[in-house]
Specification:
This protein has a 3-stranded antiparallel sheet with strand order 1-9-8, with no helix packed on it. The protein is α+β, with helices and mostly antiparallel strands.
Length: about 200
């Protein structure tokens, strides 16, 4: 196809392996995929936008979607979770997301909640720690817990080297992770459908 994106050699092997694995799964479930319009595995690995359905997402719950081979978390925060962001504001290293990130930080998410203002309770972030690429664990319950401070307000803990992030995926001060978790470009197609990887300015 004329507009197909080029894939660098380093990722070609990964794509081949991904496509091969997808082909095996496809044999067993070919019928289920015929009527869908989701991007192919190859397109997703190359960076095609992914549509996320959050119609069944309840307050306090999180769903995980895959974009560019990475987990993208969509967390619907409760009013209590939102209130905790004020308490963590002076404890996080980059409260307004002003540092340089792996993905350009969308202007519409450079705020305390790191979300679009019309859907302030929804956090959309790439679930990969900015230290060495581990995937943090969700630790939404507030209060003292193993490996967490006594005044823990809820958030995420990286199991590899102990970096902690609040409920806006902002890293706490003096942790190995140098930056907050990335926020991918995204836009709402409706109140229950999100397009991850593309916004009004185009694709990432």
């Amino acid at each position: 196809m004329g507009n197909e994106k080029q894939v660098d050699p380093g990722r070609r092997g990964l794509l081949v392996a991904t496509c091969a694995a997808g082909g095996v799964a496809g044999l067993a479930t070919a019928g289920a995929f015929v009527s869908t319009f989701q991007p192919s595995e190859r397109a997703k690995a190359a960076g095609a936008p992914v549509e996320a359905d959050i119609s069944d997402l309840k307050p306090g719950d999180m769903k995980v979607f895959e974009w560019r081979g990475k987990p993208v978390w969509v967390l619907k925060r409760t009013p209590e979770m939102m209130a905790s962001l004020e308490k963590t504001e002076d404890k996080v290293a980059d409260p307004k997301s002003e540092k340089v990130y792996q993905l350009p930080m969308p202007e519409y998410c450079k705020n305390q909640s790191r979300s679009r203002q019309e859907h302030k309770e929804i956090l959309i972030t790439v679930g990969i720690c900015s230290h060495l690429g581990c995937s943090p664990s969700s630790k939404f319950q507030a209060g003292a817990q193993p490996s967490l401070p006594d005044d823990w307000a809820g958030g995420f803990l990286c199991p590899c080297h102990g970096s902690t992030f609040d409920l806006a995926a902002r890293v706490y001060k003096n942790k190995p992770a140098p930056t907050n978790l990335d926020v991918p470009p995204h836009m709402y197609l409706s109140d229950t459908k999100i397009l991850i990887g593309k916004d009004e300015k185009g694709e990432a």
